Amino acid sequence: MSDATAEAEAPRKASKMPLILGLVLALAGGGGGYFAVSSGMLLSGGDGGQKAGETHGSDGHDTPAKDDGHATDAGHGDAHAGSGPVTLGEFAFVELPPLVISMIPGAQTTHLRFRATLEVPAQYAEEVSAMTPRVLDAMNGYLRALSASDIEARDALLVIRAQLTRRVQLVLGREKMRDLLVLEFVLT
Fold first, then answer.
1. pLDDT score, position 43
2. Residue 178 belongs to a domain with what CATH number?
3. 117 beta partners
4. Of 20, 37, 41, 65, which has the maximum CB count within 10 A?
């Protein structure tokens, strides 16, 4: 009877097995999530996880996309502004020439270097490319109106990108532009 009483009075050590199991599962889930996102299986921008140049056939298997006569820039790391749109399947990228904006006197920075590209449906790529001067005019007008505090704010890039997207969609039409991608935003 004294042995049973001694065991009841001694504190029990908690098992570390649930903690170890939880840690292993968290690491496995994180690794799996990273792989899924980086390989394009998740959060692929609405293209259903397809890689560029692939389409899903009626049987669900990947088949190479048909050549539609548009040049793609696969393997050519630098698409230069003015070289025309780069078409990838259902959408194209129209790169805009870089803008250099002079800041007002007294600002901590003197210039803003800004470069962007437009993601457009492939059928409108040539039309959007022809409208580049109007697009640049709208972007330049907005960027020049910004104060130094607007550009130096913590969320400046998000706000500027949203405003530029809105203005470019007004120039081109909402159906002719999917997104505005900021390639360079440098304060000098």
1. 54
2. 3.30.479.30
3. 95, 181
4. 65
Q: How many domains does the chain have?
A: 1
Confidence of residue 19 (pLDDT cuts 50, 70, 90): confident
User: What type of residue is 75?
Assistant: G
Based on DSSP, count helices (H) and strands (E) in the chain, helices before strands.
Answer: 6, 7
Provide the greatest CA pair distance for the chain: 95
pLDDT at 7: 57
Distance CA 143, CA 16 (A): 58
Measure the CA–CA gap between 149 and 156, rounded to whole angstroms.
Answer: 9
**Residues near 178 by beta carbon (within 8 Å), at least 6 away in sequence:** 91, 119, 120, 121
Angstrom distance (rounded) from CA 38 to CA 132? 33
Assess if residue 92 is contained within a domain: yes
- Interatomic CA distance for residues 175 and 100, integer angstroms: 28
* Residue 180 is assigned to a structural domain of this protein: yes
Residue with tokens 């900021």: 182
User: Average pLDDT, stretch 28-54?
Assistant: 61
Cα separation, 90 vs 122, whole angstroms = 5
